[in-house]
Amino acid sequence: MTERKRTRREERSYTQLMMELDELETWLRQSRLKDRHIPDAWYHIERDMPARQKKVRITAAFDADVARWFRSYGPGYQARMNAVLRAYMLCVVSREIEGRASHDWKGDPI
Questions:
Q1: Angle at 15 (CA atoms; ends 8, 3), nearest 5 degrees
Q2: Which single residue of 6, 27, 87, 95 could bond 11 by disulfide (Cβ 3.0 to 4.6 Å)?
Q3: How far apart are CA 86 and CA 84, in angstroms?
Q4: Model pLDDT for residues 27-43, shown as the tens digit of each residue
Q5: How many CB atoms lie within 10 A of CB 58?
Q6: Could you tell me the CA-to-CA distances from 94 to 7, 22, 53, 90 in Å, in that order?
Q7: Are 70 and 77 in contact, with CB atoms under 8 Å apart?
Q8: Which residues are paired to 103 by β-bridges?
Q9: Widest CA span of the chain, in angstroms?
Q10: Dist. CA 43–CA 72, nearest whole Å
């Protein structure tokens, strides 16, 4: 049986599939590498976190792979997600990294 030539749509979809697979493979390699460098304290962060201000219940949608990864660490995954978001927020606020708030509406540094 001879293989027929793909249509443009099929070719675009195939190319997109290959890019997605490449991204997933890269993510998996990096995830495994990072997992080896996660300190033991990370697994107890929900227990050891000091009491903070009152929590606010929100509804948020996360990418399935992100939610799956955090859930794979077991109970307390929401506290870990909060800790990661807090670290990012503090990096932006302290201007350790540039964030959206680092520039005004024209793109000039604040």
A1: 60
A2: 6
A3: 5
A4: 888 877 776 766 677 66
A5: 5
A6: 51, 34, 20, 6
A7: yes
A8: 109
A9: 67
A10: 11
The single-letter code of the amino acid at 92 is V
In the numeric block, which tokens belong to residue 71?
């859930």
Length of the chain in terms of residues written: 110
The H or E element spanning position 38 is none
Q: Which residues neighbour 41 within 8 Å (Cβ) at sequence distance 6 or greater?
A: 48
User: What's at 39, amino acid-wise?
Assistant: P
| Bridge partners, residue 109, by sequence | 103
* pLDDT score, position 67: 93
Residues with Cβ within 8 Å of 6's Cβ and at least 6 positions away in sequence, in order, are: 14
CB 63 within 8 A of CB 71: no
Q: Encode pLDDT of 47-60 as tens digits.
A: 666 656 678 888 99
Separation CA 97–CA 40 (nearest Å): 26
Q: Which amino acid is at 105?
A: W
